[in-house]
Design brief:
Layout: H1 4-13, H2 21-34, H3 40-50, H4 52-68, H5 72-105, H6 112-136, H7 138-162, H8 185-206
Helix pairs in contact: 1-7, 1-8, 3-5, 3-6, 4-5, 4-6, 5-8, 6-7, 7-8
Bound molecules: fe (ii) ion (FE2) (2 copies).
The site of one fe (ii) ion (FE2) has 6 residues, from helix 3 and helix 5.
Length: 222
């Protein structure tokens, strides 16, 4: 069984990656519109965007394999990427559902602009960007995603650290218990943070870079 508190400590003890300008611009854009502090509204946007690179990579691999299906090596790599991309985007979608459940539980009303229109505009632009980047330079796309995921992992673990009251709040809804069966909201967010580490590790592994030690091992690239 994973010790989520130990994993949280490991994240907080590990410095963030040295984010490159492209990643810093993305984080700056989110901070500009939603503020620097992590709120559920900002997490909602983060999770809407988080699925998009995986969708772009999956699509790219299917397009490539239309012509490369006779090349065993390309097929093998393409299938590993699509398998990982499908798993990761399903996992990111679970994160989004959890955040939605939490907002509903707290009675947070969705705002027509901040919760609906702005995420749609951001998703549209990020989709175009991700598709283009995956076509031009997939390695850069993997590395950018590793930075995105490292940022998300640290943000979630810091969020729990900043809100100790979450450990006294029992999970009632079914969605939040689906993965990890956490008893408290503190553990739900720790579990999500750990998922982000796994996403980061897999992104690094596909770049041929060393991964970070943790409860979940990077495997699809090996
Ligand atoms: Fe996520
Ligand atoms: Fe993620």
């Amino acid at each position: 069984m994973v010790n989520l508190r130990k994993e949280q400590e490991a994240t907080l003890a590990r410095p963030r990656m040295a984010y490159k300008p492209m990643a810093r611009m993305l984080f700056w854009g989110m901070d500009l519109f939603y503020g620097k502090a992590l709120t559920l509204r900002k997490v909602q946007l983060l999770e809407i965007l988080a699925r998009i690179p995986y969708q772009a990579w999956e699509l790219r691999q299917y397009l490539r394999l239309t012509h490369l299906y006779e090349d065993g090596e390309s097929v093998d790599k393409g299938r590993r990427i699509t398998t990982w991309a499908r798993e990761a985007q399903d996992n990111e979608f679970w994160h989004l559902l959890v955040v939605n459940e939490r907002m509903r539980q707290l009675g947070i009303q969705k705002h027509w602009f901040w919760d609906r229109w702005l995420p749609r505009i951001a998703a549209f632009k990020y989709r175009l960007f991700s598709r283009l980047l995956s076509l031009i330079d997939i390695q850069t796309a993997f590395y950018l995603n590793a930075q995105f995921e490292d940022h998300a992992e640290h943000e979630y673990m810091q969020f729990v650290q900043d809100h100790p009251e979450l450990d006294n709040e029992k999970v009632e809804g079914a969605v939040a218990r689906e993965h990890g069966n956490a008893e408290t909201w503190g553990d739900v967010f720790r579990r999500i943070g750990l998922d982000e580490r796994e996403h980061m590790n897999n992104s690094l592994a596909f770049c041929g870079l060393p991964t970070v030690a943790g409860a979940d091992e990077a495997s699809p690239a090996s």
